[in-house]
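Apologies for my clumsy wording, but are you able to produce some protein sequence, whichever is easiest, and the tokens describing how it folds?
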Amino acid sequence: MKVTGNIVKILETVSGVSKADKAWKKTSFILETSEEYNNIYCFEVFGEEKVDKFIKFNKVGQEVDVDFNVQTNEYKDKYYTSLQAWKIFKAEAKAAEVVEDDLPF
């Protein structure tokens, strides 16, 4: 899935150690689109390298294109859904509309 919008907030980075004794790191950010309804998304970026790149190249107020997956996990009969961003790029500039004149000269 893909969405375009402005980064309005970057949340605090969280890290820890898994049951398999492996370190992990994630951060979340809030994206607001220009849609009238359902225009706020909270995305997760997971993995040390991805988090570091995200923090380095993205700032609040920047317009970005986000490719993401929706993931749902079950834990003790409760379901948790997250939007996992896997590709984030600066939004492409909107192509200027060319108005063609239908005059013969």
Notes: The radius of gyration is 19 Å.
